[in-house]
Write a structure and sequence with these properties.
Layout: H1 15-27, H2 33-70, H3 77-91
Helix pairs in contact: 1-2
């Protein structure tokens, strides 16, 4: 059995915020306000990280793409064979 190390997180919020969040938790079917907050924050954190990773990947892919346009590498054997096979297939139609 694996033990999970826990950490505490405390915050203060207005009475109105607490009541609002409790209402949302109740109608959302959550057992507790804590469960609602933890799940909501986890989902939001995942979304932020996923979006950030897309941006980083996109920038990296842009750099690779434009570097290849400016300084194209020569085709390897597999690409040359694929091009020949494609030409043969197109000529046979």
């Amino acid at each position: 059995m694996r033990t999970v190390e826990k950490a505490r997180f405390d915050t203060k919020l207005s009475k109105e915020q607490k009541e609002f969040f409790e209402y949302a938790a109740r109608i959302g079917g959550y057992r507790t306000l804590t469960e609602f907050i933890l799940i909501s924050v986890q989902e939001k954190a995942n979304k932020i990280i996923e979006e950030n990773n897309k941006i980083i990947s996109s920038k990296r892919e842009q750099k690779i793409f434009f570097d290849e346009i400016v300084n194209p590498s020569s085709a390897n054997l597999a690409l040359k064979n694929a091009a020949l096979n494609y030409k043969k297939m197109m000529n046979s139609l």
